[in-house]
């Protein structure tokens, strides 16, 4: 079980969690070093995934989005849940995909329709590589997510954080003077 503690001064949530392990509480905090390890591992695993027949069976739009989908999943799971691949659960997968993706990721509908097929094949791959041991559970969680629900949540502006609002304005062409370098920096800093 994980509970996130509010920062009483600012009324904001910190990435500090109390995690129940072995009958005791363990406090765990977000670490940039640990986050970068997760990203680097995922980049390595994704490069291997790209060489598989399973990856080639994805549609062209799914293949195009796959690297970003896996990086975003890994980043959001760690940043907001302090979970690495071995700690993913059905509940954490649903939370990341149904709540965090729609709130944080500025992208097109094609991207969002690619999330479940990509993650489904990626979890199978990670299982074969012995990076996750509960792929069947994770896949059942994915199979329980309706694409329509994910798209609806993504389209609902009430779900968007401030960074996604700005990103969607740029993406949809409402901000015509957007500098490509600033967009790239924005994606790196906020689109997660």
Describe the structure.
Strand 1 and strand 2 form a beta hairpin. Helix 5 (109-128) crosses helix 7 (147-155). The chain has helices spanning 32-49, 53-56, 60-81, 90-104, 109-128, 135-143, 147-155, 162-171, 180-190, and strands at residues 2-7, 12-21, 24-29. The protein has 192 residues and is mainly alpha-helical. The chain is globular. Strands 1-2-3 form a three-stranded antiparallel sheet, with helices on one face.
What's the layout of helices and strands?
Layout: E1 2-7, E2 12-21, E3 24-29, H1 32-49, H2 53-56, H3 60-81, H4 90-104, H5 109-128, H6 135-143, H7 147-155, H8 162-171, H9 180-190
Antiparallel strand pairs: 1-2, 2-3
Helix pairs in contact: 1-3, 3-4, 3-5, 4-6, 4-7, 5-6, 5-7, 8-9
Brief summary of the model shown:
With 192 residues, the chain is mostly helical. It is built from 9 helices and 3 strands; from the N terminus they run βββααααααααα.
What summary fits the major beta sheet?
3 strands, antiparallel
Mean of pLDDT:
85
Number of beta-strand segments: 3
Beginning-to-end CA distance, first to last residue:
24 Å
Structural class: mainly alpha
Shape: globular
What is the succession of H and E elements? EEEHHHHHHHHH
Could you give the order of strands across the largest sheet?
A: 1-2-3
Query: Which consecutive residue ranges, at least 5 long each, have pLDDT under 50?
Result: 1-14
